[in-house]
Design a protein that fits this description.
With 502 residues, the chain is of the alpha+beta class. Helices cover 38% and strands 27% of the residues. Strands 8, 9, 10, 11, 12, 13, 14, 15, 16 and 17 form a 10-stranded mixed β-sheet that branches. Strand 5 and strand 6 form a beta hairpin. Helix 1 packs across helix 16. The radius of gyration is 30 Å and the shape is elongated. It starts with a strand and ends with a strand.
Length: 502
């Protein structure tokens, strides 16, 4: 028995052939295998079996590795003008930042597919079912010719990327790259909800700061000096944040990242977590919740002596009084920073006056209520100059910006997955995309461009595809200026032509 081939309309088909002697004559019996997708690996496609493998030696059928399934082009008319600038720029930028070493550590088996999907997450905030359409009209198909972004292949890819081994290889490579650039010891930790209606154990009812939702909780760690996402974890929506801090720091330590200073949300500051922070010798800065005894004691003992000239500081055009006092917190010596934000005091008082007018609140009650307007308490394990405590604490805004990138710029939401494996793979791709977008934000911070506006301008730069070469086209005058501005910022020079890969 052997495999024969036929070519029909430029497409190669395979058939099983067996020669037999019937009535004294040799006859060949044929059985169709279907379309040849990958002859070397024995991958075929038929209506009856779908995509499958066939081994002639053992006469057995099997299921192919999804990473090896090539793209099947259904449309005969190939697009000869492609979106060029955004995909070419993004590929060049990733190379410049040496991120392909990290991305390829995923080792899916088809690096082109992974690279193309990451580009899609950065450039096109749409459902994955549209990825193949985007790919066909983008220069990404020239950059990554072996990519397969068919909807089912993406699901297979995400399930493969969700493997724990893949996670570990990725973070080993990524954290190693970040360690070479900046010190990763000072971090910001916070969590956000990913609302969804997926029927799997991670989705649960969450009551976070009084907001009820059906969600998964996503924990991000951001490197303070670079503003870059450093690490992430996810937990079921009904797990309380306070129980996750120690585990997050232990996982970082397992990757050889020793935390020295952490800026935390108030929800993480509990007696247990405080003890763990002191035990691990991790300095911290956090806001103290108003319903704690420490908050009440610090305010009661020091509010009357807060507003003095030496306690007045300015920050970002706002003024605040801040007084530092040494105190005890669950048996540990800490520094409390009692503050009053004058802008916030004015806003809260204005709302109180309006409410008092309509609800007939007495002057005595107004006086009592406004006493704590604009008041806050921060807690630190080490002394910080009072004019530096707000800049350090409001570094937390960096992690809010990262969450904003994830939810609005890297296709993280809405969640369109059905299993925990594909969910994990989706988070890994979105995390990688968020790193790239955050790097771009940092590099564009002194310009008038954002990553979104830069990619929109670059998409207007097209290219033409010929038999053996690619020619870049001219942009319209206004679009050309924007595209050229961006190329100049990153010192990228665009050739007039490229040799088309064979």
């Amino acid at each position: 028995m052997y495999i024969g081939y036929d070519i029909k309309n430029g497409i190669k088909y395979a058939k099983l052939c067996k020669s037999m002697r019937i009535d004294g004559k040799v006859k060949t019996i044929q059985k169709s295998l279907g379309r040849v997708l990958d002859e070397a690996n024995g991958i075929y496609q038929s209506r009856e079996r779908g995509v499958f493998t066939y081994d002639l030696q053992t006469d057995t059928y099997g299921v192919p590795d999804s990473a090896l399934i090539p793209v099947v082009r259904r449309d005969k008319a190939e697009k000869l003008i492609l979106d060029f600038g955004d995909a070419w720029f993004l590929d060049s930028y990733i190379r410049k930042k040496k991120l392909y070493k990290v991305i390829d550590a995923i080792d899916y088996g088809n690096n082109d597919s992974v690279r193309a999907l990451i580009q899609y997450y950065v450039l096109c905030n749409m459902a994955n079912c549209h990825a193949e359409t985007w790919y066909e009209g983008s220069y990404a198909r020239i950059l990554y010719p072996k990519a397969n972004l068919a909807s089912q292949r993406i699901s297979d890819m995400l399930a493969s990327l969700g493997d724990e081994w893949t996670y570990r290889e990725f973070f080993k490579a990524y954290l190693s790259l970040l360690a070479k650039r900046k010190n990763g010891e000072n971090i910001l930790i916070d969590s956000t909800g990913l609302p969804n209606s997926i029927h799997f154990p991670l989705t649960a009812i969450s009551n976070h700061n009084g907001k009820i939702s059906n969600e998964v909780r996503l924990i991000y760690v951001v490197q303070q000096k670079t503003n870059l996402p450093l690490y992430f974890r996810y937990i079921a929506g009904n797990i309380v944040d306070v129980s996750t801090l120690t585990k997050t720091m232990l996982e970082l330590k397992a990757y050889n990242v020793d935390t020295k200073f952490a800026v935390l949300d108030a929800g993480y500051l509990t007696e247990e977590n405080l003890g763990e922070l002191f035990k691990a010798k991790v300095s911290f800065l956090s806001r103290m919740k108003e319903n704690t005894n420490l908050y009440k004691n610090v305010v009661e003992e020091n509010l009357s002596t807060l507003e003095t000239a030496e306690n007045l500081i300015s920050y970002n055009g706002r003024y605040a009084y801040i007084k530092r006092v040494k105190t005890d917190c669950w048996g540990h010596g800490v520094y409390a920073y009692l503050g009053r934000d004058l802008t916030m005091q004015s806003l809260e008082s204005s709302k109180l006056y309006d409410r008092a007018e309509t609800k007939k609140i007495s002057a005595a009650d107004v006086h009592k209520a406004r006493a704590n307007h604009g008041v806050f308490v921060l807690v630190s394990s080490r002394p910080i100059a009072i004019d530096q405590v707000l800049p350090k604490y409001y570094m937390r805004s960096q992690i809010e910006q990262v969450f904003d990138i994830c939810k609005n710029n890297t296709n993280m939401l809405p969640l369109r997955v059905q299993t925990e494996e594909t969910f994990r793979g989706h988070l890994l791709v979105a995390f990688t995309a968020s790193v790239i977008v955050r790097m771009l934000q940092n590099d564009l911070s002194t310009s008038s461009y954002t990553p979104e506006s830069a990619f929109l301008a670059l998409r207007n730069h097209k290219c033409k595809i010929f038999d053996d070469k690619i020619l870049t086209m001219e942009c319209a005058k206004k679009a050309a200026k924007k595209a050229n501005d961006i190329y100049k910022i990153f010192k990228m020079k665009i050739p007039h032509s490229f040799t088309l890969p064979v």
